[in-house]
Amino acid sequence: MDNITHSIIGLGVGELLHRSLPPEPDAGRHGTRHRLLLVSCAVASNLPDLDLFLTRLLPDPLGYLLNHRGHTHTLLFAVPQALMLAALLWLFWPAARALLRASAPARWGLAASVLGGLGLHLLMDYTNSYGLHPYYPLDQRWFYGDMVFIVEPLFWVAFGVPLALMMPARAARVITLAVLAAALSFFAWRSYLGGVSFAVLLMLGAVLAMAQRRSGLRGRGALWLALAISVGFIAAQGEASALGRARISAALQRIDPASRVLDVAMTAFPSQPLCWSFVSVENNEAAGSYRLRRGVSSLAPHWLAPLACPNGLVEQKLSSPLAPDIAQFDDTTASLQTLRALKNDNCYVDAWLRFARAPALMGGALSDYRFAATPRGNFSTLRIADFEHEGCPSGVPAWGYPRADLLTPAAAR
């Protein structure tokens, strides 16, 4: 999830926590607590991404692939992160330190803000198709939510509108709402956001604005509504993703009964549960090959299908239909024997395969097919020849292989 979204959600939850606690006995301490909970929850909601500083520990592209969403995105390492943030706030914020000494609600609020922010970061990152491994070292597997686009404006609206209207200065309220409207308009103009989705988000913003006005300056009704909308949206996206995956898997099985569908990675479009891009992984052990496909699927009825998928995020190339509502843009086939030999013989490939969910082997390079259509190129590409004369990298995290089902022959499983 992008850091703007992490921050807005953190601010919203911090504000909700502050308003849910009993007030402090004087205005000064109450204001300090307000700032403390907002800052702590927003910072905690971004803190796990400090692992970006660890990406230089391994050569490109392994450093980013294996160390981002790495150890700091686990439940085990959430504990030292929480303690570090609490210690920094205590050491460098004298007013907050005095408040925490005197106020039990402030102490409980800080604990909830820090732990809640860290938990929210892991939860929101889980909802994407990129994945993380929260239970390491007890469980080394990657977990993928495949539910929400990595930049999701619905969360901006859900929490941003109430937060803007809670600002005491009118100028700040107007500027914040204008920036939010401009961001949505930019997404719509670039066709990243469909017209129907844009209209729904504007209506949602109006509803939240009315809810905030009804709840009053110190009310929390709009924030509870924002939380309920966000949870409902994620649940709806999860159901739509599961339905789309089932339809795609069934279509692939009809097209090629000899292959087994191992995975269908689903990527959402912004604020649009009816349209999904996908990458499928199919294994044909008897033929000694595996196939990856990339395409888009619409869950909308036929009369609404043209409006469902935003043009700016759909590949503009000829497609071949797999089913009436499923289009394939590209595919690639590779040898199982070659992939398995590379894993066993090349330690850089072995490390790379600890990340790749859809390993495409083409022209002496390995790329995760999920990112084949990224505008700036596939950041996951590993050119095998670049490391032929290099010693094995040290400090490779022991993540599980996402495609262990491809790397191990069926007879050995």
Summarize the structure.
It contains 14 helices and 8 strands. It is an alpha+beta fold and 413 residues long.
Descriptors for this entry?
three-stranded antiparallel β-sheet; single chain; five-stranded antiparallel β-sheet; globular; 413 residues; alpha+beta
- Which structural class should the secondary elements be placed in? alpha+beta
Query: Beta-sheet strand percentage?
Result: 5-15%
Query: What is Rg?
Result: 24 Å
- Rough outline: globular
Low-confidence stretches: none
Distance between the termini: 35 Å
Estimate percent helicity. 40-55%
The count of strands amounts to 8
On the 0 to 100 scale, the average pLDDT is 93
Largest sheet: 5 strands, antiparallel
Order of helices and strands: HHHHHHHHHHEEEHEEHHEEEH
- Counting DSSP H or I runs of 4 or more residues, the number of helices is 14
Strand line-up of the largest beta sheet: 1-2-3-5-4
Written description of the protein model:
The protein has helices at about 5-20, 25-45, 60-65, 75-90, 95-100, 105-125, 155-165, 170-190, 195-215, 220-255, 305-310, 335-345, 345-350, 405; strands at about 260-270, 270-285, 290-300, 320-325, 325-335, 360, 365-370, 380-385. The chain has 14 helices and eight strands. It is α+β, with helices and mostly antiparallel strands and about 425 residues long. It has a domain at about 5-235. It is globular and about 75 Å long. The strands form two sheets. A five-stranded antiparallel beta sheet has the order 1-2-3-5-4. Strands 6-7-8 form a three-stranded antiparallel beta sheet, with no helix packed on it. Helix 2 runs parallel beside helix 6 and helix 7 runs antiparallel to helix 8. The longest helix is centred in the middle third of the chain and has 35 residues, at about 220-255. The protein starts with a helix and ends in a 6-residue tail after the last helix. The mean pLDDT is about 95.
